[in-house]
Specification:
single chain; 260 residues; alpha/beta; 2-enoyl-CoA Hydratase, Chain A, domain 1; 2 domains; four-stranded mixed β-sheet; 11 helices; binds coenzyme A
Length: 260
């Protein structure tokens, strides 16, 4: 598929999606959100794709937020629809994606940019990254899941402070806050993230997918995460990957998972 605002590259079973509006610091306009949705949707069924890395083009920004120029004259109704559509099409879609999604945060991750990074399953940042939710400085609040996912990751007090001050934190503070798992040098970010993807891909893709579902269940209203875990655990016993994983272990050889 051809896109105007994103680039796709599949290599060694890793799909790298690069948001590519560098002149606008990769700000998320409607078209970009739709393209990202389409890219994730086709990656879901593409058997070649085992892990997705999402990053921004250039060294300056991952994503500097939702495109402010697009919603400057919106009514309350239009604003509500913008948030609801975005959450459904992209942010929740990524969070619940059945294959691992890693955000490689290569610069500013502000507003919708940080919300996108937080929707990913985990985050790795380069040392020049800067993160924040500056919406209240625009007379808004975060609308793409930021008020929910930031406290889950950094705790309520830190999230409140970041949201209320609209300030930015740097990569080392983000590491200290558990907002990112690792910080790398600028030119090592993608390689480091790909190595991480490689470690994940050595394991059963079916089990990894079930694990994503079980972990996410803890954050869903009205869902009992322990029950989800029991169900997914039970289902694992019916997979070819389970048979291969256990027989490889008992046979003292490396598992070659069929991914079923
Ligand atoms: N929406 C739309 N355009 C954006 C944008 C956004 N969120 N963030 C940056 N841009 C555009 C700027 O308008 C500018 O476009 P122009 O060259 O046509 O004027 C271009 O990207 C470069 O940004 P600029 O502000 O000149 O870069 P800078 O290095 O001086 O500042 C930031 C970088 C990230 C601090 C600054 O761009 C910024 O504060 N962006 C908005 C962040 C924000 O509030 N995000 C939350 C949105 S809800």
């Amino acid at each position: 598929m051809s896109y105007q605002n994103i680039l796709e590259n599949i290599e060694d079973n890793i799909l790298t999606i690069t948001i590519n509006r560098p002149k606008k610091l990769n700000a998320l306009n409607r078209e970009t959100i739709q393209e990202l949705h389409n890219a994730f949707k086709s990656a879901k069924t593409n058997e070649e794709v085992k892990v997705v890395i999402i990053t921004g083009s250039g060294e300056k920004a991952f994503v500097a937020g939702a495109d402010i120029s697009e919603f400057a004259d919106y009514s309350p109704k239009e604003g509500k629809r913008l948030a609801a559509d975005g959450q459904e099409k992209l942010f929740n879609y990524v969070a619940n994606f059945p294959k691992p999604v890693i955000a490689a945060v290569n610069g500013f991750a502000l507003g919708g940019g940080l919300e996108l990074a937080m929707a990913a399953h985990f985050r790795i940042a380069s040392e020049n990254a800067k993160m924040g939710l500056p919406e209240v400085s625009l007379g808004l609040i975060p609308g793409y899941g930021g008020t929910q996912r930031l406290p889950q990751l950094v705790g309520k007090g830190r999230a409140m402070e970041m949201i209320m001050t609209a300030g930015m934190i740097d990569a080392s503070q983000a590491l200290q806050y558990n907002l990112v798992n690792h910080v790398t040098e600028v030119d090592e970010l993608i390689e480091f993230t790909e190595n991480m993807a490689g470690k994940i891909m050595k394991n059963s893709t079916v089990a990894v997918s079930a694990a994503i579902k079980a972990v996410n269940a803890n954050y869903e209203d009205g869902v009992n995460g322990f029950e989800t875990e029991i169900n997914e655990f039970g289902r694992s016993f019916g997979t070819d990957d389970f048979k291969e994983g256990t027989s490889a272990f008992l046979g003292k050889r490396k598992a070659d998972f069929p991914g079923k």
